[in-house]
Write a structure and sequence with these properties.
Layout (H helix, E strand, L loop, with lengths): L13 E3 L6 E3 L17 H4 L6 H4 L3 H10 L12 H9 L1 H7 L8 E5 L5 H8 L3 E6 L2 H7 L6 E3 L14 E4 L9 H12 L1
């Protein structure tokens, strides 16, 4: 199968699990070939990270919603009008989609952070950030959100086990050469 979405060169053989019908690449990518998956200008990594509209437009009502419903007590505004509260309640689905519940001390690790868009968004609401990114071009951009970005294989990251309150990984597992088992073991050690 060719990459029709992003135009990454090469053929990617696919297999389907008979039990759950999951479609996956088989054989998995090898570590020494991962760089080929991210050619110069690879779309998701080449784009400039910007704050999403929901984060940019976070007003007193939105901060009230995050503080009262998702635990972002440090964002609680002093005064919130009834109109702002109603507007925030109408936007609750967007807030719930964009913001994870506040956990512990607010230490967040984003594995596969790409160019840092999610890191920037979470930094805007107070999370202490770290990231892991395999692609050097993307890692350089992510460092604008936090200097604490490890470039390379997630398994080799120097972060201490238990050093984070929240570990996120969006569109990552399908890129790991070790597959799901290795990824799950990694995330369990980090959280």
């Amino acid at each position: 199968m060719r990459d029709l979405a992003l135009g990454v060169p090469g053929e990617f053989p696919l297999a389907r699990c008979e039990g759950c019908r999951l479609l996956y690449q088989n054989p998995r990518a090898r570590v020494d070939q991962l760089g080929l998956a991210y050619p110069p200008g690879y779309g998701p990594h080449a784009r400039e990270p910007e704050l999403g509209r929901t984060v940019r437009r976070l007003d007193a009502g939105g901060r009230w919603f995050l503080a009262t419903r998702l635990g972002y007590t440090h964002l609680r505004p002093e005064r919130v009008s009834a109109t702002d509260r109603l507007r925030a309640l109408r936007r609750r689905r967007k807030y719930l989609d964009v913001f994870p519940p506040w956990t512990g001390q607010g230490r967040l690790l984003d594995v596969g952070c790409a160019s840092g868009k999610f890191l920037r968004q979470m930094g805007a609401v107070g999370w202490r950030l770290a990231g892991i990114e395999f692609d050097p071009e993307a890692a350089a951009k992510a460092r604008a959100a936090t200097p604490d970005v490890f470039e390379g294989d997630p398994v080799d990251a120097p972060f201490a086990p238990g050093g984070f309150d929240l570990v996120t990984a969006f569109h990552v597992i399908e890129h790991l050469p070790g597959g799901l088992g290795e990824a799950v073991r990694y995330f369990i050690r980090r959280a």
